[in-house]
Amino acid sequence: MDKLTAELKSTANEKSIKLESGDRLVDDVLTYALFPQIGLKFLENRGNPDAFEPAPTAQAPVAKADESKSNMPKVAGDSEVYTLTVNGQTYVVQVTEGGDITSVTPVASSAPTAAPVAAPVAGSGDPVPAPLAGNIWKVEVSTGQQVKEGDVLVILEAMKMETEVRAARAGTVVSVDVKEGDSVQVGDSLLTLA
């Protein structure tokens, strides 16, 4: 604990982070020890509410479906009908007052389908996408490095769990698009493999 306290105090001095004092310093040290990257970001921005997500509020209402266009049966007074779009597919959903879903009907899409994604230019390589949203815990490869199928490329941290992103095939790392501590969303390019 003494070693972690000294390490945190040193880092706090370098980055001008104001730590708690007295018995409350232990909370800051434990936050840093358990979550080195995210905990440090928290401690840096503790007094800045704009650095964090806003507190949850009542959810915005979901747009109601135009019931005159729906082919679903009308149930007087005890259900609501909503139109939801999931991954480009539209569904009409009927929900009863207690929250039970009584009917889900796919709607034929009248929107044109998206154009297919262009294949990467020959020699440029294939991007390796993030399989989930999280923070980059560790980058295990560097540009120009040869990798074999199954080698660990990047370790993501999400919800206190580490996830290894492995090479789907052998190749050469053309570029590394992230660094340790970066936040990524699902599908963001982590690196390019040729």
UniProtKB/TrEMBL annotation:
Disordered as annotated region, ranges: 51-74
Residue ranges annotated for the Lipoyl-binding domain, each copy included: 114-194
Keyword list, A-Z: Biotin
PROSITE patterns named in the record: BIOTIN (PS00188), BIOTINYL_LIPOYL (PS50968)
Record-linked Pfam families: Biotin_lipoyl (PF00364)
Identification of the protein by name: Biotin/lipoyl attachment protein
Natural source organism: Nitrincola nitratireducens
